[in-house]
């Protein structure tokens, strides 16, 4: 009883800290209003162009790679959803390098809060938050055209959460590499480019790229499998093994983070 | 002339100073082309299929040409101008006895040269891995028009990069924002670098022809593929050249206006 009360208190404290960090991040963005508007317009235009292109393409070809037009659109919508959620939650990873090279990570380490929590969730992105309702609407709308069962919808939701867990694991690995090599920008951009290959079902890629996207950077588990689950192409074994895979990845990425922290030299501080 | 040759040499060496940066930029370019290649390969699973005026050989040629055309038109150092305006470093350049535009064109040429070399390596590498059936243009006139269209495309991109870089003269805090919106979004999608513009309905294609974007990637590739007759190719080149002249003129005008409001913030 005492233990669960303590856990609840810790959870409440972390939630309070998260809200504070997110508010600070939003205030910083709002101080640069013109940049905020430009990035918001940019994101909306980008998604509109991409979906526009796909709609024209699947209309003329009646789908491809064995999938119907609506199924192809749903793969893309799922990618956009997971990517935007990850961008919204883990944006602070992009500015982590500065903390390491300046030695300011010391200030994070001495605070009575988990440094991984601060480094990973420290800068929620309001641009992504604003676009999220429209993206969720598109996912629900295209998903409904595929007439999924309740079970397949449940699988989908579970696997999207699992996709976020995998994305979190990658971001943790990028942070850890950042401590060891002081290099973040390229690693995270390469990760993003690889994940963006999940805009389309990974079945379209040939070897050796298919193996790379299945085993090395599991974009398939992260993006393609959730969409396939809603279509009804993934059974319970596939769902459970994807969840185990996601949790294992998270476990190893946290181990890697602890290892990296031991290598932190606090240079320049 | 001598001093610009020196700038060319130094710029070339600078590209090697940030090796990882350069390699990652190339890797990202190749990955974008890979998505294009696999997407269209799966659309054209049936080798006799014909969509949007392309057969499988031509769409694969489009994918490979993207690497080369992007290396020429879109590799540029001019995009750095935004940063030096917003942090005041532009003052250093203004004090030097060199022409601002010639300096950046020289730096662009050095960047393009290196990117072209790498694009050949990448094309060879991908060709060996993917072993695609590809369309090779043998008509000399098409090849010459293709070269001319690349020159025009480079001038258009230079002007667009400059114009977006001049935004910080008036709004210093959005040095990257303007480039994100225009270069990363509009140029990428409306130039044919992301997908062939033939995918759009005819009305949209016709509207796009009145903008400078298709002349960056789509028109050069169409010229190479010989998708249009020689008269239409010449007309496209003429419109592209007109856009290049108009944009260069606007660039010079905006530069002169920008200099009047430049405050060397940060210096």
TrEMBL record, chain A:
Keyword Transmembrane attributed: yes
Positions of transmembrane segments: 72-90, 129-150, 156-182, 209-227, 233-254
Keywords (A to Z) from UniProt: Membrane, Transmembrane, Transmembrane helix
A Pfam family the protein falls into: ABC2_membrane_6
The organism's place on the tree of life at top rank: Bacteria
Record has Transmembrane helix as a keyword: yes
Segments forming a coiled coil: none
Identification of the protein by name: Uncharacterized protein
Organism of origin: Candidatus Woesebacteria bacterium GW2011_GWA2_33_28
Automatic annotation (TrEMBL), chain B:
Record keyword Cell inner membrane present: no
Keyword Secreted: no
Transmembrane segments: 30-47, 59-76, 113-130, 142-170, 176-195, 231-250
Keywords: Membrane, Transmembrane, Transmembrane helix
Protein name, entry field: ABC transporter permease
Species of origin: Candidatus Woesebacteria bacterium GW2011_GWA2_33_28
């Amino acid at each position: 009883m005492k233990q669960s009360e303590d856990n609840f208190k810790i959870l409440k404290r972390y939630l309070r800290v998260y809200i504070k960090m997110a508010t600070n991040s939003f205030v910083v963005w709002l101080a640069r209003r013109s940049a905020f508007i430009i990035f918001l317009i940019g994101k909306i235009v980008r998604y509109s162009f991409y979906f526009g292109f796909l709609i024209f393409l699947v209309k003329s070809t009646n789908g491809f790679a064995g999938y119907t037009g609506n199924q192809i659109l749903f793969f893309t919508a799922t990618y956009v959803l997971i990517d935007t959620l990850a961008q919204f939650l883990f944006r602070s990873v992009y500015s982590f390098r500065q903390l390491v090279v300046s030695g300011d990570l010391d200030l994070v380490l001495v605070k009575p809060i988990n440094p991984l929590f601060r480094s990973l969730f420290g800068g929620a992105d309001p641009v992504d938050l604003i676009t999220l309702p429209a993206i969720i609407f598109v996912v629900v709308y295209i998903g409904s055209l595929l007439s999924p069962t309740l079970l397949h919808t449940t699988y989908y939701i579970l696997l999207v959460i699992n996709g976020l867990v995998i994305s979190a694991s990658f971001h943790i690995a990028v942070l850890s590499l950042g401590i060891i090599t002081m290099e973040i920008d390229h690693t995270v951009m390469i990760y993003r480019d690889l994940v963006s290959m999940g805009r389309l079902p990974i079945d379209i890629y040939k070897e050796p790229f298919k193996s790379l996207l299945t085993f090395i950077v599991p974009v398939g588990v992260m993006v393609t499998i959730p969409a396939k689950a809603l279509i009804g192409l993934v059974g319970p074994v596939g769902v459970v093994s994807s969840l185990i895979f996601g949790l294992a990845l998270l476990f190893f990425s946290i181990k890697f983070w602890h290892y990296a922290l031991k290598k932190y030299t606090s240079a320049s501080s | 002339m001598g001093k610009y040759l020196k700038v060319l040499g130094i710029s070339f060496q600078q590209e090697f100073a940030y090796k990882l940066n350069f390699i990652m930029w190339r890797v990202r370019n190749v990955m974008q082309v890979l998505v294009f290649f696999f997407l269209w390969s799966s659309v054209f699973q049936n080798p006799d299929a014909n969509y949007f005026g392309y057969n499988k050989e031509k769409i694969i040629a489009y994918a490979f040409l993207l690497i080369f055309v992007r290396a020429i038109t879109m590799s540029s150092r001019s995009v750095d101008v935004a940063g030096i305006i917003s942090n005041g470093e532009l003052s250093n350049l203004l004090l030097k006895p060199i022409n601002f535009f010639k300096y950046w064109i020289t730096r662009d040429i050095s960047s393009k040269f290196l990117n072209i070399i790498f694009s050949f390596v990448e094309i060879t590498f991908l060709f060996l891995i993917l072993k695609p059936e590809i369309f090779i243009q043998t008509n000399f006139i098409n090849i010459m028009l293709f070269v001319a269209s690349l020159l025009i495309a480079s001038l258009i991109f230079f002007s667009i990069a400059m114009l977006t870089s001049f935004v910080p003269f008036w709004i210093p805090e959005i040095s990257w924002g303007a480039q994100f919106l225009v270069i990363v979004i509009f140029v990428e999608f409306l130039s044919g670098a992301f997908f062939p513009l033939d995918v759009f309905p005819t009305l949209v294609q016709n509207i796009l022809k009145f903008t400078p974007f298709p002349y960056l990637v789509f028109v050069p590739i169409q010229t190479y593929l010989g998708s249009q007759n020689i008269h239409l190719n010449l007309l496209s080149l003429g419109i592209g050249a007109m856009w290049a002249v108009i944009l260069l003129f606007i660039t010079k005008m905006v530069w002169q206006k920008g200099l009047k409001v430049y405050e060397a913030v940060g210096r």
